[in-house]
């Protein structure tokens, strides 16, 4: 009997394999034999047949076979299953004995060897007397055998050997000792396996045959035994299906047995064994549901079979073992590839096992708490003669006794006492903790975090019972935050209570204080009297005294704890504990709130700290300090209240630092921000509240940021959602939920008291020096110093704008690209109160579009805040968006000398260039001058002089110019460059010293073409009815060829004419032909001239349309006036 | 996932039931997350038996707004079939809806409604 008496025997848990013994091998001294043996046992992988081998000497004594019973009539079995039976068939009684013998077919001394071999076989047979064990002979040969049938001597001698040994031919094997040893061995193995199977088959048959002799009344136990044996042999035979079937039958038979207090343990033990086998096989057959169902059935059947009440812990232990074993099986199956799910995994079985282990512990506690004087009985009733039991699950002091009534009550009593005393020595907690941790590992795997936490709590509690407080605290501390974050306060309180006990018993000051703080807090569901007790203890601890013991603690443990506490008290050490509260729910709540999200630097920063206690009694704190991200402010925000340690609970209603439960206390703080912090954020990094004082012990409760603990964010959310009307409170009190934490504020600069005006005439014109007048006026009461102006393009706009915008203070010269887009920190000097200052800026914008301009004025001023002199830097900025536009649009067109639009010009023939300047500016523009810069390919016909000098253009007005030009030669395809048109201009309103802006316009290219014949006409500007009108046409040949020209003049109704009506003539290259006509107008008005048609024989392209370009088609004919009025008419 | 209302009878092993309800949330969470993939509107609110223990049966129910109801009953009580449990949950849900309809009830607070209390009590009496 040992602590693991509930463990299943090894032979039950292993996988049964056919047992084969090898004899005649000398593995120690013979290298060949060694190699053979190694080949048998090395590398036994799953693909090899399941056999367990053992080397035994040839004359090994096998267990004796009991003489066969001929009749079962008078046989009364003493138990269900003998303890040695399984082991016997697994490791002692072989299915096959193999005799190895070195013998070659061509052995010269064949006869002697043969008889020696036969003797060996005989010896083996002798020792196996009565058993059905098979015998086989293996001849180890040095030579490779010839193919069967060819070696005549071999077959003859083999037959002879078989005869001599009384063996069948099938049981004689040859093992040539050659290179392919392993291959031969595997073949041998398979043959052995077959023999073994036949052996087990006959064994099964033999056991089955016993059944017929049994009768139901006296041999019930044998039914179970035989069924179990059949199943076990089937398993050895590797016939798992039949094994399972037979185990199931056996299981049913076990429960048919008549159960009584005396044999219930035996029945349960056997049922447990068989159940284990069934479940194991089910998992092996990959039918886990069957296994689970079987297990459930098993548990349901056995749950109530408690047996003797005095030994009820045994039942619990047995149940625990059942669950644990099943959990192990399940887990093993999962390792082999079975998939478990969240609701069905080994964890549940381990958990249940742990539960029964706990129950066992409880039973043991009630049943085994004997007085110390109770001695262990002597002689030991649990000792047996052999040291082991004959049958599984029987009582050592009455083995093999089947009667249901107790023959010897005295002996029984002693036996039970011995068991109880044994049980007392069992370390239950260890068992429970192991099971729980197994379960935890499983639940972790199957995504059950809460189950895991729950089990860890149980583990923690078990450690507590086991007095391993450190581990208990570690576990409990680990899971506490889960329960806290999920808001299960009842559970949290129970965990905390245990944890508090642990920390008390270990005299762990910091933990003790932390748990006390939380148990006093609002999250704890403890009753008020409990809270009062804890609060009192806490105060005691802070006053460096020993706290009262926690209730329900072990008396002995309390004694040691008190000693520990006393040591602590006397020990002078660090007595200040800083506890970060953001991770739990302490009994004081804290909220910090700045009065505003931002403060100007010239007003004091103010904020409130709100405190609220949830403990049952008022409590006094000694100090409150607030820390900021800028630590220089920390010194301003400390409240300290000197009080004697003993006064923590007394003198309650007065004092700023005394908190009355449920009441909100507001503490106002005020400080002046530093000027360096302008533009920075001031944050409360922590609020520290000190309980107790440094002479005793003190605890610093430290809130990160502006207060709030593990539960407060959820509460704030609930409060925000709530529609509940809050009860009216007196003026100086506030509702706790309505306070919103504001842990940071911005320091911003002082409000400037100056005015900045901008004066300008938008929009700006491209490239002009745009004038911007900035007027700064001080409205401050004192002198302001160091006024600086920053002006220009506002940063952060398009990068191209920065390139094309330039700012300068000097308007008299044009600025180029080297000028910046933003002028920074232009010193202006000091300003007296009311003084005004003007500054002129010039901006040049190179591109159109809108730009944001920034004008930023900064200055220094001295002020006082709270009797403190500070220098404030103030600034004011103005932004203005200025649109930039083109001052004017320039349109250019080419026209013929007749002012007809020209798409192309003809070489060497004069044409006109017309420019049209349309003012787009809303302000008047003065055109200072204009200039035409001709390209080298162009020549001017006459003087090029500006016709628009000093013209002032209002909005929408335009100025045109006209230049007569000639292009002497034909250009390439793209046309001929004309040149540039330069306009110099300025605003009419601009001052004299503002430079003139020149805008250069590139004139368009023009396409120049050759013309073969140029015709121009000389004719007066008008005609008069019935007066002769001489018209002269000049025909110029522009080619190098002699031209044949056909000329005809078509008559017109309005004219009579004289001259050549139709002619054909030749014009030499470069020469000119004149044609003279006299027209005689017949009608007045705008009349069509008789049209001149010219046909060039060499140039069919030369059409009349082209011709019409050059010569007039109509003429104004005046009516014939009276002669005396003639001159006046002409004048008109 | 924090308790809105919890009640048990008999009172002595209250803590055990609290733990049991809390651990059952694991299964509820898992069921919800696998169901989330299915069509939401066709979801069955009743989750069925959450997990078996030796002595108790734990049933779960989740509303569309993910409010969870968990019921722990003695496993020896064979009178309670799936259908009965289902109807009990429906009753609970209705009662809970009534509580929610109360304009003075702030969702997320502990339920302190007398009507809900009475309903639960009557249900408990009926079962025991």
UniProtKB/TrEMBL annotation, chain A:
Residues 263-521 form the Trafficking protein particle complex subunit domain. Its main location: Golgi. Keywords: ER-Golgi transport, Golgi apparatus, Transport. Signal peptide: none annotated. One of its GO terms (cellular component) is TRAPP complex. Belongs to the TRAPPC11 family. Involved in endoplasmic reticulum to Golgi apparatus trafficking at a very early stage. This is Trafficking protein particle complex subunit 11. It comes from Ictidomys tridecemlineatus (Thirteen-lined ground squirrel).
Automatic annotation (TrEMBL), chain B:
Keywords: Cytoplasm, Endoplasmic reticulum, ER-Golgi transport, Golgi apparatus, Transport. It is found in: Cytoplasm, Perinuclear region; Endoplasmic reticulum; Golgi apparatus. InterPro entries: Longin-like_dom_sf (IPR011012), Sedlin (IPR006722), TRAPPC2L (IPR044760). It comes from the Eukaryota. CDD domains: TRAPPC2L. Belongs to the TRAPP small subunits family. Sedlin subfamily. Component of the multisubunit TRAPP (transport protein particle) complex, which includes at least TRAPPC2, TRAPPC2L, TRAPPC3, TRAPPC3L, TRAPPC4, TRAPPC5, TRAPPC8, TRAPPC9, TRAPPC10, TRAPPC11 and TRAPPC12. Interacts with the heterodimer TRAPPC3-TRAPPC6A. May play a role in vesicular transport from endoplasmic reticulum to Golgi. This is Trafficking protein particle complex subunit 2-like protein. It comes from Ictidomys tridecemlineatus. The gene is TRAPPC2L.
